[in-house]
Amino acid sequence: MATDSDRRVVVTGVGAVTPLGETFPASWEALIAGRSADAPLELFDTSGCRCHRACSASLPELPDLSRKALSRLSRASRLALPAAREALAHAGLLDGDRRCAQRDLALSISTTAGGMAFGENFCRDVFAGKRAHLFSQVERYLPQQQVLDLQQDLAVNGPSVVMANACASGANAIGHATDMILAGESDCVLAGGFEAICELVFIGFDCLQATTIEKCRPFDLKRSGLMIGEAAAFLVLESRAQAEARGAKILGELTGYGHSTDFFHLTQPQPAGDVLVEVMRAALREAKLDPAQIGYINAHGTATPVNDGPEAAAYRTLLGDALGATRISSTKAAIGHTLGAAGAVEALFALAALRSGDLPPQLNLQEPIPDIAPALVGLNEKHSDLRHVMSVNLGFGGSNAALIFSR
Fold first, then answer.
1. CATH code of the domain covering residue 297
2. Number of other residues whose CB lies within 10 A of the CB of residue 242
């Protein structure tokens, strides 16, 4: 990663819609207060499932759009548009007509299901013999449609890319955006991800018995599975030179990014956690930091039996004697596993911790995994002098990613 000052990458805006709030400040306030969005799922019938609960979000109002325009938006776009608008407004890049002032804005976006609900509705209508609106449902369920919705809503025409490498997609979308700026391909990128709960994905995880029928308990010996969630989260990333030239407020600097694919198993992480350790060390090398300098880690922590043990062991290996001084928590107990959006929304949580000193608590603990127990964050815990934080994500197929944000 380049280190010359004009190619340093900074964050100038954030925005999110999560199960805890319709804006990022509302979500952060609820998260720090120890709230969880775990509730019965009412988006579709779950009577045939083991799990009947999830963390679903309230869709923000978009009063400037007509009823017809809203009907053409997938649930995923209904989450993504207000989050993207919030991030750009926070960065001072949204004009009075809610259009982006930087028309060549690049997009680096992550998702796994896209607008899958439109595809599900298409199948239902075909089986029921209905023909109305069939073409529009097929046309608009693909993941690139949500990117087109964003570009149209924001009136931008820069390059775009969709990352879809499972649950590390959000982190890799942010990392790719960083690489674009460092390579001189763009001076400003809207990076992040979105995920809307859909029936196919929810039932798929239920069939894998990866979802829990009780509380989601990351890093607990009694963990029994994940809770599905949905969210959209975006960061405005800029070269430091451009941000300073336009007088933007800098929220933090993205100083390190590491990623790899280990190919160990389609759905299980490498048991010893060795590859995850190397990914975190790669991010640390780019940031020119020692592990002990990381004050907080927003961990992946799905609460599935096969994930949390190797992940906890990886943190023990990486941090050594610094384990405990570095604080760790998984926020999936509060907002669920948001899949393609997870790396994005959790990066925002890590950045907010860096700026405020407030640490997201580890909820629902009963018997913490001994390897990581000394590091897990308690309720109302603060860190008075955070200088560097890390966000870590693991995905199906062995995808691993780590991001480091610094003051």
1. 3.40.47.10
2. 17
Does residue 262 fall inside a structural domain? yes
Q: Which two tokens stand for residue 221?
A: 């010996």
Question: Which one of 259, 300, 383, 388 is the catalytic residue?
Answer: 300
Whether 259 is a known active-site residue: answer no
Judge whether 55 counts as a catalytic residue: no
Rounded to an integer, the average pLDDT of 79-92 is 98
Place of tokens 């340093």: 8
Give per-residue pLDDT as tens, 257-291.
999 877 665 666 666 678 899 999 999 999 999 99
Catalytic residue list contains 300: yes
Short-list 391, 330, 305, 363, CA closest to 38: 363
Quick count: other Cβ atoms within 10 Å of Cβ 160? 18
Work out how many domains the chain is built from and give that number.
2
Supply the pTM of this predicted model.
Answer: 0.94
Catalytic one of 51, 55, 100, 167: 167
CA-closest candidate to residue 400, choices 263, 198, 227: 263
**Nearest-angstrom CA–CA distance, 100 and 389:** 29
Q: In this predicted model, what pLDDT tens digit does every residue of 20-66 receive, in sequence order?
A: 999 999 999 999 999 999 999 999 999 999 999 999 999 999 999 99
What is the biggest distance separating any 2 CA atoms in the chain, rounded to whole angstroms? 64
Does 282 lie in the same domain as 241?
Answer: no
Give burial (CB, 10 Å; 0-12/13-18/19+) of 364: buried
DSSP tag of 399? E
Residues 234 and 13: their CA atoms lie apart, in Å, by 8
How many angstroms separate the CA atoms of 144 and 186, rounded? Answer: 20
Amino acid at 314: A
Catalytic residue, candidates 90, 176, 337, 383 = 337
Question: Which two structure tokens, joined as six digits, stand for 108?
Answer: 């680096």
